TrEMBL record:
This is Phosphoadenosine phosphosulfate reductase family protein. GO terms for molecular function: catalytic activity. PANTHER family: PHOSPHOADENOSINE PHOSPHOSULFATE REDUCTASE, SULFATE ADENYLYLTRANSFERASE SUBUNIT 2. Residues 3-142 form the Phosphoadenosine phosphosulphate reductase domain. InterPro entries: PAPS_reduct_dom, Rossmann-like_a/b/a_fold, Sulfate_adenylyltrnsfr_sub2. Pfam families: PAPS_reduct. It comes from Escherichia coli.
């Protein structure tokens, strides 16, 4: 059976990739795919390129190309690892066809990750001829949803979150960002505190994200995407009287960086496998 690692760009997913590369070198049929949303942190893209260059990984990078006709399936384009980056192009394409995601309608992962991944793999390997591997650990029991055609890091490693962090601390490169900046920087699945802290840390990225929403959403209304019926603008304003360090301290005391507390990777197929917001972001 063909094994395809759906690489999210995070540490746990990258550790899975490393383990699977050992299997590939031992003779197993293993492939690696990254679905680029164009909305990750610049350091995430740097991390991905470091993985490719240091481990000599053949990583296939995909970006969704929605069919402008409603009811017609999206396609994808494959681009080089040096061409992925925080340009928001896939995000903009999705907004143009589907509008913005929202609490209760987080279709973004499906449209930008699951759909292009599935189409690519079915075209390349044939339907039913491959197993999808996701970077889900043993300490994430709520995310270990058993389903045909899927396997997880937990199936081949007993590493928990701290084990992964310890492993990366021994490598010559690492993902150089704090967890609230992981995944899409302004992901709607994150807590309001994480989004606000991300905007404080990366105001230029926040401005670019807001600008895309302002120019691409044609309803004439502010896009309500976040918890508490907030737009990104209103969410930023909500925390404007709190210092960056105070907000970060509050999040630590609330254990918002613990496993299962909205700190994990945003995997493809999170909707199909039944991950909830706290599980998948």
């Amino acid at each position: 059976m063909i094994n395809v690692v759906s690489f999210s760009g995070g540490r746990t997913s990258a550790y899975l990739l490393w383990l699977m590369e050992q299997k590939r070198q031992a003779g197993e049929d293993v492939h690696y795919v990254f679905m680029d949303t164009g909305a990750e942190h610049p350091k995430t893209y740097e991390f991905i390129r470091n993985i490719v260059s240091n481990w000599k990984i053949d990583l296939h990078c995909l970006r969704v190309i929605p069919n402008p006709e409603m009811g017609k399936a999206s396609s994808y384009e494959e681009i080089g690892v040096n061409d992925i980056g925080p340009d928001l192009i896939p995000w903009k394409r999705m907004l143009n066809k589907y509008g913005h995601p929202y609490i209760g309608g987080a279709f973004c992962t499906d449209r930008m990750k699951s759909v292009p991944f599935t189409k690519y793999c079915q075209e390349k390997f044939g339907k039913g001829n491959f197993i999808t591997w996701l970077g889900i650990r043993t300490d994430e029991p709520n995310r270990l949803k058993r389903a045909n055609g899927f396997r997880y890091l937990a199936d081949i490693s007993d590493f928990e979150k701290q084990d992964v962090l310890d492993w990366w601390s021994e490598q010559k490169f690492d993902l150089g960002i704090q967890e609230h900046l992981g995944n899409c920087v302004f992901c709607i699945k994150k807590s309001m505190q994480k989004v606000a802290l991300a905007a404080m840390d990366e105001p230029e990225l926040a401005d670019a994200f807001i600008n895309i929403l302002d120019t691409e959403i044609k309803t004439g209304k502010e896009p309500v995407m976040y918890r508490g019926n907030n737009t990104l603008k209103s969410l930023i304003a909500l925390f404007s009287d709190i210092s960056r360090d105070e907000l970060a301290s509050r999040m630590t005391s609330m254990r918002q960086y613990d496993s299962g507390s909205c700190s994990e990777s945003c995997e493809a197929f999170s909707c199909q496998l039944g991950f909830n917001f706290e599980d998948a972001a």
